[in-house]
Amino acid sequence: MKVLESSNKDNQTQKTKTFQHYLPEGDRCYSCVHCRANLASHNDLISKSFQGSQGKAYLFNSVVNIGTGPAEERVLLTGLHAVADIYCQCCKTTLGWKYEHAFESSQKYKEGKFIIELAHMVKDNQWEDSKKRKSI
Predict the structure, then answer these.
(1) 136 assigned to some structural domain
(2) In angstroms, rounded to a whole number, what is the distance separating the alpha carbons of residues 99 and 84?
(3) Would residue 130 count as lying in a domain?
(4) Per the domain annotation, does 117 fall within a domain?
(5) Which range marks the domain in which residue 16 is found?
(6) How far is the C-alpha of 86 from the C-alpha of 54, rounded, in Å?
(7) Which of 8, 30, 78, 102 could cross-link to 121 by cystine, CB 3.0-4.6 Å?
(8) pTM to 2 decimals?
């Protein structure tokens, strides 16, 4: 749990609690490289074949500990989409985007899915153990 301070319109300081969601122990997951908050389970990974503004990016079915900005139309490599930037709820770093709407029928499968750039995430939990099991 993280306690954040903010000011209201009367310049009074308020404390708000941000509750962090933790993915199940033992699951391979991806976490924020900046604060190590869990972001997504490996089981929700759809594709590793995406490109973000800072290099490779992964497409996920669902994510946790994410905030979403307002949707806007952008022309991406695969055409026009309505996307919303996503950021880490814990450290506020922009991580990628959420596909809100795809204008081309071939891209509709992306709607409601999330892109996280590799530059902003690390592998956590059980990655080493799964490599050992495969080599046995």
Answers:
(1) no
(2) 7
(3) no
(4) yes
(5) 2-125
(6) 15
(7) 30
(8) 0.80
Task: Look at the chain and count its residues.
Answer: 136
Residue 91 maps to a domain: yes
- How many domains does the structure of the chain reveal? 1
In order, the DSSP letters of 60-110 are ES--SSEEEEEEEEEEETTEEEEEEEEEETTT--EEEEEEEEESSGGGGGG
How would you class 67 by CB atoms within 10 Å of its CB: exposed for 0-12, middle for 13-18, buried for 19 or more?
Answer: middle
The candidate with the shortest Cα–Cα distance to 59, out of 42, 79, 80, is 42
pLDDT values of the chain reduced to their tens digit, one per residue, 136 residues: 444 444 455 666 566 666 788 888 878 999 999 999 999 999 999 999 999 999 999 999 999 999 999 999 999 999 999 999 999 999 999 999 999 999 999 999 999 999 999 999 999 876 665 554 444 3
CATH, residue 22: 2.170.150.20
